[in-house]
Amino acid sequence: MDSDELQTTSEIRDKIIERNSPFSPYMLPKDSYPAPEHTDDMSYNQKYATRVASSPLTPEELELVQGILGDMFHEEACNSLSFHSTFRRGWARYLEMASAPRHHQDSGDADAMRWFPDILDYANKQTAVYFVGGGPKPNKVGHRHGYMDERLGRYIYRMWHVLHGGRPNLQRRHFFAKALRLPESEAASWSVPGLVAAHRRLCDATAARLGSEVVSSRHEDSASGGDLGGFPPPVAMAQTWSEHGLSLGHLFRAVVLVADEHVLPVECPVQPVPEIRGHNQAWKVAAWLERLMPECSVLMVRTGDDAHLSRPVSFEKLITEGKTIPLELEEGKLAEEFGVVRVKIGVAMRFLFDLQVEEEAAIPSLRQESAMLTEERERACHAWVESVLQHASRREIGVDGNRFTWEAVRRMWADRDGNIFDHGAQDEVLLMPLYSWYGVRWPSIENN
Fold it and tell me: Which of 65, 250, 286, 364 is deepest in the core (most CB within 10 A)?
């Protein structure tokens, strides 16, 4: 049987979970940690990097360092996942973005699909972003002021963390959206009704597989007794994917986003900059991208498949608050029938974030699941922080002999002085931008 075909419940597969994967993204406690390296890195404020830490820390300093270590626990997971192929290449149409399901033309069954996905990557997402149209080469440099699909994906990745105050529950593939591209053969003739129908079939097929495929999972190194990977550990017991904690997201059926040829306005207020080479000049490109990506807009579409929600999805508040963008004539004809609005991507993400919060408040099982995930993550964070401090407390190690406490202490010093220690990758809310964003932080843009 092909591993991507629908499995019968009588078959059991052994699934290997890769290390530092979207299933288990968090660090595990260890008995020892490496010493700091590259302390003369130019991104470090050398005023603090060259200072020697006193030992032991005062109670006040220790409390501050514990909080910063907690920040670093989440930063490590967030920045590590940002380089995973799911996020780094999976949001680029010309690289590894998944294709939306296609009709099986030869089957004679109008509802049949040809679909061979990595089913895990469809689990625990709030919505799907369908990329359609956009010209013959939508991902090439210079397209529409510098817009690229993967840059929108990176912006979404960071906004997701900002919305959660730097503490999203990332375990077991949780994320805002799954990126899907329409096949080239369908890109020119796509329609909202057709997309909604296809999405409904995708949801049914995904839910069926997650609820029926029985697997026994383990980390890739556990069989050889090596590093057990990240946290949380997979459950070796044979269970369905849903029992392993992977299921269709609560909002996934109800609302989808569409990034079409109007993803940027015709008269974009952010104009492109000339090609810039060299590390120092690259920061100018990064600052330009930071201003460009918030201008991206998407269609937000109600599918009508929301009977499982506490109340039907409504865009009325967005309209009355003036947060929508005028639709094209043909799009406007569909607005009343399907519920279609165009909004900036940040507005769409906030809308779905708030909707999820409302649903959790209204539905006890959702609220309990969210609380369980948060408690699991925070428990793992506490255990890791304690192990780091325990290692640094050894006389032969000290806080300057452990790379995590070395950095945490200097971040604490800089913060007390109103400064920044690491200009490249310090804030878990603002995150070090993803690959090709040149490490720029938002505050440096706002101050330019």
Answer: 65
d(C-alpha 362, C-alpha 236), whole Å:
34
41 lies in some domain: no
What is the model's pTM? 0.86
Q: Determine which helix (DSSP H) or strand (DSSP E) holds 416, and give its type and residue range.
A: helix 403-416
Q: Choose the weakest-confidence range: 37-51, 276-290, 345-359, 412-426.
A: 276-290
**312: domain range?**
12-21+59-446
Task: Take residue 142 and report the two structure tokens written for it.
Answer: 């210079």
Count other C-beta atoms under 10 Å from residue 280's C-beta.
Answer: 7
Indicate whether 349 belongs to any domain: yes
Q: What is the DSSP string of 143-184?
A: GGGG--HHHHHHHHHHHHHHHTTT----GGG-EEEEEEE--H
The domain total for the chain is 1
**Is residue 407 in some structural domain?**
yes
The answer to the question of residue 308 being in a domain is yes
DSSP state of 394: S
Q: Among 368, 447, 444, 377, which residue's Cα sits nearest to residue 166?
A: 377
pLDDT digits (tens, 9 = 90+) for 178-226: 999 987 777 677 888 889 999 999 999 999 999 998 888 776 664 444 4
